[in-house]
Amino acid sequence: MMNITKITSVIFAFLFVALVPLMLLLTDVQMVAYNRDYYSKEYDKYGIPYSINMSKDNLMESTEKLLQYLDNKRDDLDFKASFNYGEEEFFSYRDKLHMIDVKELFVSGHIFRNISFAYVALYILLLLRKKPFNNQLRKLARQGIMVSIAGIVPVIMLIILMKIDFYKYFTVFHEIFFTNDLWLLDPATDRLINIFPQDFFTDMAFSISYLYITEMAAILIFSLIALKCVKSN
């Protein structure tokens, strides 16, 4: 009975250590991906409105519809937009097909993040309800250190790889998460690749990574402080 209890405890702790980094990473992806100000600054940085013959306000209006779609608050991307030369459908047929796959990833990621959050919150609550409290807090701090190490090392390695050849690993990402080639868009016919060039995704990937590393560092620092300040009973 003792062995079963110990094994179960180890499994629960392992899930905690594994899920916290994934939960935070998915949260960071959503924080950056749904940040309207981020898109506005990136559009200005790369001159996107000028390059697609569209006003900044109209581009942001179309972007809002796209983000609502990804957030499952809009059913489709069938809409027209006003350009300097007139009005036309904003996204191509291939754009829309690809965004169906992207939306599935966002929705699945949102569900997984919420489930992970529920597990992590329940795990911490049940752990800290046990006596003595100080011992359980120190145990949580030790697991926090494991969380930070397990979470930060792979991302730092990924950042190094992205700095070496972002396009290569951007391609690998698509080959892993998409079962078709709809992500291979044509700048001559598909607007999605024109409003979101590779440099846009490079900036987004690094913004997410730096935010995530900051969170992992904070967990590590607070865990070390807790281990130093909280005495075991």
Can you give a write-up of this model?
Helices cover 77% and strands 3% of the residues. The protein is mainly alpha-helical and 233 residues long. The protein has one domain. It has a two-stranded antiparallel sheet with strand order 1-2.
**Kindly state the mean pLDDT as a whole number?**
93
Strand fraction: under 5%
* C-alpha-based Rg, rounded: 22 Å
Taking strands numbered 1, 2, ... along the chain, how are they ordered across the largest sheet?
1-2
Which regions contain 5 or more consecutive residues with pLDDT less than 50? none
Structural class: mainly alpha
Helical run tally: 8
What is the CA-CA span between the terminal residues?
26 Å
The description of the largest β-sheet is:
2 strands, antiparallel
Q: How much helix is in the residues?
A: over 70%
Topology pattern, helix = H, strand = E: HHHHEEHHHH
| Count of folded domains | 1
Q: What general outline do the C-alpha atoms trace?
A: elongated
Brief digest:
77% of the residues lie in helices and 3% in strands. With 233 residues, the chain is mainly alpha-helical.
List keywords for this structure.
two-stranded antiparallel sheet, 233 residues, mainly alpha, 2 strands, single chain
Question: How does the SSE layout of this entry go?
Answer:
Layout: H1 2-33, H2 36-46, H3 48-51, H4 56-70, E1 80-83, E2 86-89, H5 93-129, H6 133-177, H7 192-195, H8 198-229
Antiparallel strand pairs: 1-2
Helix pairs in contact: 1-5, 1-6, 1-8, 2-4, 5-6, 6-8
